[in-house]
Amino acid sequence: MGRSSRGAKASASVDSAFEYATRNNATDNDDLDLDGSFSYRQIRTLNKQMIVEENRKYHSKQTSRGTILISVLGIVSLWMVAFSSSRSSYTNEGNTREINRLDDVDTGGVARLNRQNGVKVNDKDTTRNSDGTFVEEDVFRKDLAFLEDPLNQMKDSDLPLFWHVPRTGGSTVKSIVGVCFGFTQASELGVSMGHNADTELAVFEIDGVKYINVDTTTIEGINRARTFDLASNSTVDMVFSSYLSEASSLYNADHKGRAFTILRHPIDRAISMFHYLVSNPQLNPIIADMTLTEYAESTHIENNWMVRYLANQMEGELGKDQLEAAKEVLRRKIFIGLVDEFEESMEQFTNYFNWWAKVEDEEKSERRMDCVSQLVSVGIGVNYGEKPSLEKGDQAWALITWQNQYDIKLYEYASEELFPMQSLQWGTKAKKKQIKKQKKALQKKTSL
């Protein structure tokens, strides 16, 4: 997994891959809490700079001291109202996600940039390393600051984070990394068998698959994992979560995250979600007796799930700005795979993370390749076996399209632009050849 002290000995039998996958595939903002704040010297320096600037404005405008005082107090009051803590919630699959945003303003007018534990300099922030030194960080999405750019060189200290979009084969990915490669994962099963009461990190096994005793699929679980400094622990190989922003808070400047995901066409995903909820009526009894059209007309259907989670806007209207923000997060922070190209995607993940480098010998390598192929086949069967007939123009199709219009545009961007570009570096020979052939055909067509 790229972390030098992490082994990849598969303790689970490859022969049990089908049994394991069949059982498990059936159930397929906040500020970074980095502790610390400005030092006294830093606050004094910033306050002095602000005082000099205010004096300059005072003399240039030749206004009275009383007017300045009233103006400053008025501005501070407006700031406190505008940036007061806001709370919103968005219900999805029976879980309520609460977002708390709070920008503290010091009495001296100095914004506390606690997320970065440093001083903002132009369009950069300085971030404190564990050794006390400072490094410059891009201020793009501060909550994702410690997720590495997919194009940057892999480091041994990097820890993979799988961004799990529901109904996209995430359970299959869990099976592959757990059964075929023997990697230790942080996921919902980490708190089973009473491990939610553990007071320190530990690894245990379920059916030969290794888990670390935290649940990174819930906000509460992420907060608990952060208190254990999960990313710095060498026994964990991979983190699973649907909460990209919150899960990013697990990482730091010394142990950065490498996010990757599997994406699916939003219409297919919405249909899959409907059938999943119907098959599990305990999750939402109201949906159990609905038709697909009734579900698409109801308030229970998801609304642009991917764009909302990537742009970190769980409520309210979406627009072009949120779509572009989501595209930028995909481009700059996430290595992507596609359900429509599941096997190719797994090959690219393997190449990108260099998973085969952990294989001890040729015989085990072949067994693991067979294991991956088997589980990929199972995953593809699960994802496509539930797909009903739905034609373009049907009422249900139109309703689902309306609810996911921005997700559809995001998916088209990912599948038509990002994935082909990514494949030229990490794809299989067949995929690279296919892309080059398509490019030549397009060039020939445009030259006519």
What does this structure look like?
The radius of gyration is 25 Å and the shape is globular. Helix 1 runs parallel beside helix 13 and helix 11 (320-333) packs parallel to helix 15 (405-426). By secondary structure, it is an alpha/beta fold. The protein contains 16 helices and 12 strands. Mean pLDDT is 76; it is low at 4-55 and 57-124. The longest helix has 24 residues, at 362-385. It has a single domain (14-32, 146-447), classed as Rossmann fold. A 5-stranded parallel sheet has the order 7-10-6-11-12. It has a 3-stranded antiparallel sheet with strand order 3-4-5, with no helix packed on it.
Biggest sheet: strands side by side, in what order? 7-10-6-11-12
The SSE order reads: HHHEEEEEEHEEEHEHEHHHHHEHHHHH
Amino- and carboxy-terminal Cα gap:
48 Å
Could you say which overall geometry the principal axes of the C-alpha atoms support? globular
Report low-confidence residues grouped into runs of 5 or more.
4-55, 57-124
List keywords for this structure.
globular, alpha/beta, three-stranded antiparallel sheet, five-stranded parallel sheet, 448 residues, 12 strands, Rossmann fold
Summary of the model, kept short:
With 448 residues, this protein is an alpha/beta fold. The chain has 16 helices and twelve strands.
